[in-house]
Amino acid sequence: MTQEQRLRAMEAVGAQPPSAVRAAGRTGGGACAPSQHVVAPAGHGTALAHHGELLQGAFSRFGGVRRALVSLPCPRFASTAVFRPWPAEELRANDGVGEKARRAAELALAHLGRAGGGELRLRSTIPLGWGLGSSTADVVAVLRAVADACGARPGAEVLARLAVAAETASDSTMFGPRCVLFAHREGEVVIELARPLPPLLVVGLCADEQGVPTLELAPPDYSPAEVRAFDVLAERLAAAVEDGDAGRLGEAATAGVKLNAPYLPAPLRAVVPRLLTLASETRALGCQVAHSGTVAGLLFDATAPDSTKQASQARTALTNEGVRACWTFATSDALFDGEQAPSPVPHPAP
Question: Among positive and negative, which fits the CA dihedral 235, 240, 243, 244?
Answer without folding.
Answer: negative
